[in-house]
Design brief:
The protein has 762 residues and is mainly α. It contains 38 helices and nine strands. Helices cover 63% and strands 4% of the residues.
Length: 762
């Protein structure tokens, strides 16, 4: 007689509790009456996942009940452990194993290396995401270790993702039955198991592979019993609570390893590595996904890599293509997903809307509209522990593409498209609100501690700057989307808030596009004052980022026209300033001088101190360009003293002005041969740039300071500063050759007036 399974009893209880007949549930779920009846009676013990999902939908289960329902469906009656016989299980070692050399070398050093006297060999914990190849790598490690140790492998799967994982005593019972010479009667308790294990392995040592461990509690007693033996553990969880173990965390394969693996799986492939590189990228370099793709192509002689690529590129449901026989990426991820409690599962689904490579906990909290950051962080840690998220540095997280696709499929199945759209709108508002609050720390006319209606706040300017840079991959798409949607007030407000911060993050590289979008938004608003401001920022970007000073003159003149329409003297001053700056860059010095003087006059009218100081420095620069170095020095030194003596000397706007003055002065001092003054100003300029945490400005001033050092005959100091610049630039920088050349020439010549001085960076 067939006994109903626990799932069958639960299904019947829920159906009756909802006052549903078999026929009614069949109508609501789309599952046949016969199938439901078989499940309730236990005649069918292994329902497919889609059948269980359909039944849960038909029963109208909430998140918690659905979670319990799915777990019950996955439970299987455990077959009794064998009572007789023993024999080491020979795990399947894949013949086409590829890559993981660094991880395997690290593991073999633990398993085969010498153990210091008085210590025990630590167990090796291999963890990682679903489909990352933990078991395959563990088997490969133990087989390679076997070549040097000669130890046979005892393998046991602990059913970590089943509804009823093995208990520690069941684990030891199963292991003992595989040991030659071990008593076959089941141990009475763990103490009895320990005694039998030590007795058996003293006569015949083995290596142990504990595969698919659920949690620390499941194996902590086992590790104690097997202390000193060769033990390898695999788990999707990190098992962070275990002490005295060695850990190997598996991530995706390196791209070269993925391509080699695909070549082995698809021996008939004739496509070049470029096609396989794209396949590997679409598979996230996850070994299971790569094997599925390789097997699909290898089993279809008429198929090519290009054929599958076309489907993978265009499919909105890539996961469903990653199936080959009984191998399925989606099924592997589902095992971990089904372990999540409802609120963590919901967080996983919502963070799948985040598109950037990495994200922080604040943005994750915004996706679920939560103000409890600590709770969200705990749930993110749970997802990381399960291998569904990757933890990065600086409290950043990464959701790999296949996980994101899985999460989105679950999200769209659980909520409607309208709710997804509303949540995306909320994320965009949150990102742009946070961006405005971050920029406010660098704007003299904004109060940064005022809370935003939507978005987060920041404790200080440093935290704000860190967020701006870390989250650019998120707020920049949100900003461009807001511009496309016509959210013009928001776009202009955010752009204005980033005005001064952009001055110390010039390497970002998108400022021209950023401010151009804001200028277009201002035109749509028909607000000439805002248009003048944004066009001024565009002109700035054309000077410092694009390097098109001719176009910058045109843009700045358009800003001037808008400022005059608005009757805004401050914006008139800034427009004239940009006209002068850009004109100086194309050697139209008469125009530059006139614009600088006009800017100063407009700033005086507006009472705009910061603008006036910048206009005066610009006027001095023009004098220097004309060869009027002494006049330039006198005027700029006066401006620098005045700026540095005010109460606002330590503000961003003032510091930027001070740096510009130092640039002007060091050039003028070098031109007239006042090298001690040039070196003094160079040191001050470098200190100011470092205060701004702006490497671009540091290097700009270093180039001039090195020139002054060379002219002064300070060869050793010039070499030391060139070395410091090279360290700051890092390998591969396009600017590194300048400092390397100067260093080399100074080393060879080392005297003022030499070719080294002539070729020094300007």
């Amino acid at each position: 007689m067939i006994e109903p399974s626990p799932f069958g009893r639960l299904l019947r209880s829920l159906r009756v509790g909802h006052n549903l007949t078999l026929e009614a549930l069949a109508a609501q779920s789309g599952v046949s009456v016969r199938t439901i009846g078989d499940l309730e009676r236990g005649a069918s013990a292994s329902p497919q996942r889609r059948t269980v999902d359909a039944l849960a939908d038909g029963l109208g289960l909430d998140a918690a009940d659905r979670h319990a329902f799915l777990r019950a469906a996955r439970a299987r009656p455990r077959a009794p452990l064998p009572v007789e016989g023993h024999g080491a299980i020979s795990p399947h070692r894949v013949f086409d194993f590829s890559g993981r050399d660094a991880e395997i070398d690290e593991a073999l050093a633990v398993l085969c290396g010498q153990v210091p006297a008085g210590t025990q060999r630590p167990a090796l914990i291999i963890s990682g995401a679903p489909g990352i190849g933990k078991t395959t790598v563990a088997i490969e490690i133990l087989e390679r270790a076997r070549a040097s140790t000669g130890l046979p492998v005892v393998f046991l799967g602990l059913d970590g993702y089943g509804a009823s994982p093995l208990t520690p005593l069941q684990v030891m019972t199963a292991l003992l039955r595989q040991l030659p010479g071990a008593e076959q009667r089941p141990p009475a308790d763990l103490a009895d198991a320990r005694t039998r294990w030590r007795s058996a392995v003293d006569h015949s040592a083995v290596s142990v592979l504990l595969d698919n461990v659920a949690n620390e509690a499941q194996i902590r007693p086992i590790l104690s019993i097997c202390a000193g033996d060769v033990v390898v553990v695999t788990s999707r969880r990190s098992l962070a609570g275990l002490e005295g173990v060695q850990r190997v965390r598996l991530g995706p394969l390196r791209r070269a390893e993925s391509i080699t693996f695909l070549h082995r799986l698809i021996p008939q492939a004739v496509e070049d590595d470029e096609a396989l590189d794209e396949v590997a990228g679409l598979c996230d370099d996850v070994p299971l996904a790569l094997r599925v793709v390789g097997n699909r192509i290898a089993s279809r002689p008429a198929w090519t890599v290009a054929d599958l690529l076309r489907r993978l590129r265009t499919s909105e449901d890539r996961l469903r293509l990653l199936v080959a026989g009984d191998l399925a990426v989606e099924a592997a991820i589902s095992l971990s997903y089904d372990e999540l409690d409802p609120r963590t599962a919901a967080l996983f689904r919502w963070i799948s809307l985040i598109d950037g490579r990495t994200f922080g906990a604040h943005l994750a909290a915004a996706t679920v509209r939560s103000s409890d950051l600590s709770e969200v962080e705990a749930r993110l840690d749970d997802l990381t522990d399960l291998g569904m998220l990757e933890a990065g540095g600086g409290d950043r997280y990464r959701l790999h593409d296949l996980m994101r696709l899985f999460g989105r499929s679950k999200l769209h199945a659980s909520v409607g498209a309208d709710e997804v759209s509303r949540r995306r709108d909320h994320m965009r508002s949150w990102l742009l609100g946070s961006l405005e609050r971050a920029g406010a720390w660098y704007e003299p006319n904004r109060e940064p501690t005022t809370l935003a209606r939507t978005g987060r706040g920041f404790a200080d300017a440093e935290a704000a700057a860190e967020w701006i840079r870390a989250e650019a991959e998120h707020w920049w798409p949100a900003y461009t989307e807001a511009a496309q949607l016509g959210e013009d007030e928001t776009v202009c407000d955010v752009a204005d808030a980033l005005h001064w911060y952009s001055d110390i993050w010039m390497p970002w590289g998108n400022w021209h596009r950023f401010y151009s979008l804001a200028a277009s938004a201002a035109r749509r608003l028909e607000d000439p004052g805002k248009e003048a401001a944004q066009l001024g920022y565009v002109a700035w970007a054309e000077i410092v980022e694009v390097g098109d000073r001719e176009q910058a003159v045109v843009t700045a003149r358009a800003a001037l026209a808008a400022a005059l329409r608005a009757g805004d003297s401050a914006q008139e001053g800034w427009a004239q300033y940009y006209i002068g700056w850009a004109s100086m860059g194309v050697d139209r010095l008469v125009d530059a001088d006139a614009a600088a003087l006009a800017a100063a006059e407009a700033f005086r009218t507006a009472g705009e101190t910061t603008g006036l100081e910048n206009a005066l420095v610009l006027s001095s620069m023009v004098k220097g360009k004309r060869g009027q170095y002494l006049e330039a020095i006198e005027a700029t030194e006066a401006t620098l003293r005045r700026v540095r003596s005010t109460e606002t000397a330590d503000t961003l706007t003032s510091i930027v002005t001070q740096f510009a003055a130092c640039l002007d002065l060091i050039d003028a001092y070098c031109a007239v041969g006042r090298l001690q003054d040039a070196m003094r100003i160079g040191e001050l300029g470098i200190a100011i740039a470092r205060e701004l945490k702006d490497d671009t400005r540091v290097l700009l001033m270093m180039r001039r300071h090195i020139r002054a050092l060379i002219q002064a005959g300070e060869g050793e100091a010039a070499i030391a500063e060139a070395d410091e610049a090279l360290r700051l630039l890092g390998p591969g920088s396009s600017e590194a050759f300048i400092f390397a050349r100067v260093r080399r020439e100074v080393s060879l010549v080392g005297t003022p007036g030499s070719s080294a001085a002539d070729s020094s960076p300007a």
